[in-house]
Design goal:
9 helices; two-stranded antiparallel ribbon; 9-stranded mixed beta sheet; binds 3-hydroxy-5-(hydroxymethyl)-2-methylisonicotinaldehyde; 39% helix; 22% strand; alpha/beta
């Protein structure tokens, strides 16, 4: 049977992030994907100014109430960028209405990067997102978000495997089965992830060569590929390897094309590869 997902993120009209990434990626992976926008922005808040922002909090529970009457449960619930910390309570309410015991709850606590929170985030976000992580099966914070979630100072000057292992274990203690921390590097030439599951004692690290630059939306691209892999039955390590490969490839294609990086990466070009790899 075809799998069904519901993705709950903002719509940024321009800039290739959140729902404009999650929907095409999951669709290309053969997943029937429903979307609920948490906010509507003209662009993402990364490298643009003057963007519009409409908080859609008042829509979330009415939408979930209606969808719950359809008796069509989702195989995955994928949450991402939220309009405020207060919205977490509403997203938990959506989970109550739309998830069953079998639903894969996949939380990307998308609220910061490079040691800082995104522009529009309020101070309640880390503690509120921690509640969402507790409810999740799989969480995919980047290193910045992992540190905020755990009230740990961001280690701007480098860190050890033991530091990352400690973060992984403390995130696992919040409740999820799988933790994937992105944006991990032990040398300037690499970037990668730490994967920790309940079934393993030490985190598994996976790396790819790092490109110089800031690549907006790649957290969303990576997370969407990872969920696509998981929903197609891949184990967490295999789905993560797939997501790293395809995100790396999308960045490489984007750099060749010479487009301004604030418009995100050309993930569209690797969607055929996603499909092919999911068939193997
Ligand atoms: O990619 C994360 C993201 C999602 N949505 C909005 C953002 C960002 C990152 O800056 O600004 C609106």
């Amino acid at each position: 049977m075809q799998k069904r997902a519901i993705a709950v993120h903002d719509i940024s009209c321009v800039g290739r992030c959140s729902l404009t990434v999650a929907l095409p990626v999951l669709s290309a992976a053969g997943v029937e994907t429903s979307i609920v926008p948490t906010a509507l922005l003209s662009t993402h808040t990364g490298e643009f100014t003057g963007y519009t922002h409409l908080d859609l909090s008042d829509q979330l529970l009415p939408i979930a109430d209606h969808l719950s009457t359809l008796n069509r449960p989702f195989d995955a619930f994928y949450s991402g960028y939220l309009a405020s910390g207060a919205q977490v309570e509403l997203v938990l309410g959506m989970m109550d209405r739309l998830c069953t015991q079998e639903t894969l709850v996949f939380v990307d606590p998308a609220f910061g990067d490079h040691g800082r929170m995104y522009s529009l985030m309020d101070d309640s976000i880390p503690a509120q997102m921690r509640r969402l992580c507790s409810r999740a099966n799989t969480i995919v914070p980047n290193l910045t978000e992992a540190c905020y979630l755990l009230q740990e100072p961001y280690p701007a000057d480098g860190y050890t495997e033991a530091f990352v292992a400690d973060l992984c274990n403390r995130l696992l203690a919040l409740g999820p089965q799988n933790v994937v921390i992105t944006d991990i590097a032990f040398s300037p030439r690499q970037t990668g992830v730490a994967i920790q599951s309940r079934t393993i004692t030490e985190p598994v690290f996976q790396f790819r060569p790092r490109f110089e630059g800031v690549f907006h939306g790649t957290g969303d691209v990576f997370a969407s590929f990872l969920l696509a892999g998981l929903m197609n039955g891949s184990a967490i390590e295999n789905a993560t390897a797939l997501a790293l490969d395809l995100t790396h490839e999308a960045i490489a294609i984007t750099l060749e094309g010479g487009q301004p990086l604030r418009y995100g990466v050309q993930f569209e070009r690797v969607l055929p590869q996603l499909w092919q790899r999911l068939q193997n």
